[in-house]
Amino acid sequence: xxxxxxxxxxxxxxxxxxxxxxxxxxxxxxxxxxxxxxxxxxxxxxxxxxxxxxxxxxxxxxxxxxxxxxxxxxxxxxxxxxxxxxxxxxxxxxxxxxxxxxxxxxxxxxxxxxxxxxxxxxxxxxxxxxxxxxxxxxxxxxxxxxxxxxxxxxxxxxxxxxx
Length: 163
Known about the structure:
The protein has one helix and ten strands; from the N terminus they run H-E-E-E-E-E-E-E-E-E-E. By secondary structure, it is mainly beta. The chain has one domain.
């Protein structure tokens, strides 16, 4: 009986850790200055944002479900129309004029593996600027408000594939 209780405790502990990691998607920010915070599933909350677009948008939270940043294409077909905002809804330092066009589903953001403060923002150009590009965001920079430390990088000789 004692082994069963220990096993259940281990399973619950692993399960709770898995749920904790899933909080990165708990805040959705999207067009028309709105979003939804799902960090408490029993009572999701509407939030306001600085986004004013019907184009691509993406957001990411920390493992506790706190909004870190979000990005939007600003409704322009220009090649540098993506803007980044932090969880306080302020533009992130150097977070403007990032490659991105007014297409749907063109932005993806993920944490950099093995690092708790760096994130990739992937964007794709399909009309005036072709190809997959990425920028790197450091959320510890600028007093914890975040900064884009590498903007719209592209390499034709990378050993990585994104599918």
